[in-house]
Amino acid sequence: MAQPSAATYKIGLTTGVSIVVANMVGTGVFTSLGFQLFDIQSGFALLMLWAVGGLIALCGALSYGELAAAMPRSGGEYHFLSRIYHPAIGFLSGWVSVTVGFAAPTALAAMALGKYAKSVWPPLQPEWLSIGVVLLLTAVHATSRQAGSRLQVAVTTLKVAVLVAFIGVGLLMATPQPIVFSPTASSWQEMLSPAFAVSLVYVSYAYSGWNAAVYLTGEVTEPQRNLPRILLIGTAAVLLLYVALNFVFLYSTPIASLRGQVEVAFVAATQLFGSMGGRLMGGMIAALLLSTISSMIFAGPRVVQVMGEDLPALAVLAKRSRAGIPVRAMLFQTALTLLFIITSTFEQVLLYAGFVLSLFTFLTVLGLFVLRVRQPDLPRPYRAWGYPITPLLFLLLNGWTLWFIVHDKPTESLYGLLTVGIGLVVYFLSLRRQSAE
């Protein structure tokens, strides 16, 4: 059977799932547990934190699956919100994705890669390694969609294999710690506390990427059939992986050693395997983060490209190469990523970005109800399983988290809304320029 040409190559089920898994399994699961331990002590509550975060992502994936099958076009929330509400709302979601949602996490993953690599090779300059990795992966994805897809599958398979092996070996070799994983009255109280809701923000960041495949809808084989499967398989796999991984962290390592630590996996590996084992794990995590960086470089530019197709002011970013790759949009995102790496300001950006990104996913899932009312006859090759319970559960849990962010983190919330306000100004300026032409 002849192989598809570079120009007609389509993303299949395996590549799509690998993109979702790679987008989700990044810096969040390796860094956030240490901060959760400041306010939550129960092993049961901590595991439920990751289970609830996964449930939110799974309900979101079910909802996005219906929207993507009904409106199969690349662009993600930008495309959905433009169709359901108003082009301005869609533009704002795209603006947030472009300026914060992809470039900043890509930079964060690249810098984390540099730090973990430095734990193995101390003379290494982590910043230069971060920059070099971003440029190299951009070159691969800008050259060939088929080569980029194969690279994505390979590095994601390696990532999952290493983490599954770490979980298995950790369960066999660990000295059990005095932490209770069975539910108690106090653990249920912790689950209803503001600390649990705020911690869900960081867990949601670790799960962010469950919707990655919808940014590539136009390039997926049989999107009405494959997109829902990609979203569900990828999200469910990561949910199981995250709960098991955090169980091993807590089961094998004293809480005092983990609390407040950023490099949680390095601390746990050192506890399990000694100093050399910890350094080896640090090197392996650095290699695993290649998958996360690669997937974001692959998916993010598609949002910029679709926005450029709709807005003449951004048309220069919509052009594709002969291989059908949005190279200009990719270079734009890479430039933002490098800026975040060089200035190191992305860490402050991410503190408030979680609020804005959660807000737009909330609006998107809410749009599922709006679309069913406004366009009941719209062809829906896939309907969200468990409707209306599953999307309502997403809205309730996500809305609960948003409320506590506004209440407990007003400064970050205001900065997030300021980002949206700047995007609104850009949108109306682009419209004015369009009308003037």
From TrEMBL:
The keyword Nucleus does not apply. GO terms for molecular function: L-amino acid transmembrane transporter activity. InterPro entries: AA/rel_permease1, AminoAcid_Transporter. The chain crosses the membrane at residues 12-38, 44-64, 84-108, 128-144, 156-175, 195-218, 230-251, 280-304, 325-343, 349-373, 385-407, 413-431. Keywords: Membrane, Transmembrane, Transmembrane helix. GO terms for cellular component: membrane. It is a multi-pass membrane protein. This is Amino acid permease. It comes from Hymenobacter telluris. The lineage of its organism: Bacteria, Pseudomonadati, Bacteroidota, Cytophagia, Cytophagales.
